[in-house]
Amino acid sequence: MAGIPWETDFDAASAKAKVAGKPIFQDFWFDG
Amino acid sequence: MNTGPYSNEKVQAFILDQFIPVRSECFWDKPTPLMQRFGIKWTPTFIVHDSEGAEHHRFVGYVPADDLFAQLGLGLGKISYDADRLDEAIARFRTVIARHPAGGATPEAIFLAGVAEYKRGHDAKALRQVWETLSASYPQSEWTRRAEPYSAIPL
């Protein structure tokens, strides 16, 4: 598998979730 | 972007199948609007939202793959539970319990599965069974302590 195609725009992810009827998994991360 | 538990192909497949995945980078010297909106004080912080964007579950700190599966399953169960879709919630919680018995989120799944069963059938034995299961298998869990009052319910 090529990995997870993360969305980086939360509003875009929310729009996709509404259309797909899917929940959102959000990872807040820090590149220390 | 796909390190740690995300390098696990089963984790990748589960996330892709069940969720719209989004990563939000944090900057401590200048918190982003999303950090402020969701009150992010440490990373990693993970949030499970329903399809309308309402938050149902969050957890903080690194989790290995098995714990991540359990947390995500618990989050899915809580979405169903919060919407009073009790059959669906119970099935979600039972999946977590069966597949991830050592998961950090599993005691909460046991607790909520029992509560959902009680709400569905109004049989208090479901709550007593929560206590029996948690006290036998997870005696140190805070969820066992939360279930302690149910120990007085007759079986």
Index terms:
heterodimer; A: alpha+beta; 34% helix; globular; B: 155 residues; Serine Threonine Protein Phosphatase 5, Tetratricopeptide repeat; two-stranded antiparallel ribbon; 7 helices; 11% strand
Compute the average pLDDT of chain A. 94
Query: How many angstroms separate the termini of chain B?
Result: 50 Å
- The low-confidence parts of chain B are none
User: How is the biggest beta sheet of chain B arranged?
Assistant: 2 strands, antiparallel
Q: Helix/strand/pairing class of chain B, anyone? A: mainly alpha
Fraction of residues in H or I helices of chain B = 40-55%
Runs of chain A with pLDDT <50, length 5+? none
Pairing-aware structural class of the strands and helices of chain A? alpha+beta
Strand percentage of chain A, roughly?
A: 15-25%
How would you concisely characterize the structure shown here?
Chain A is α+β, with helices and mostly antiparallel strands and 32 residues long.
Verbal overview:
The complex is a heterodimer of chains A (32) and B (155). Chain A has one helix at residues 10-20, and one strand spanning 24-29. Chain A is of the alpha+beta class and 32 residues long. Helix content of chain A is 34%, strand content 19%. Chain B is mostly helical. Chain B has a single domain (4-152), classed as Serine Threonine Protein Phosphatase 5, Tetratricopeptide repeat (Alpha Horseshoe). In chain B, 54% of the residues lie in helices and 11% in strands. Chain B has seven helices and three strands, in the order H-E-H-E-E-H-H-H-H-H. Chain B has helices at residues 9-18, 33-38, 65-82, 86-99, 106-121, 125-137, 142-147; strands spanning 20-25, 45-49, 55-60. In chain B, strands 2-3 form a two-stranded antiparallel sheet. In chain B, a hairpin with a 5-residue loop joins strand 2 and strand 3 (55-60). The longest helix of chain B has 18 residues, at 65-82. The model of chain B has no long low-confidence stretch (mean pLDDT 97). The A-B interface holds A 1, 3-10, 13-14, 16-18, 20-31 and B 1-2, 6, 9, 12-13, 15-16, 18-28, 34-35, 38, 40, 43-53, 56, 72, 75-76, 79. Strand 1 of chain A pairs parallel with strand 1 of chain B, so a sheet runs across the interface.
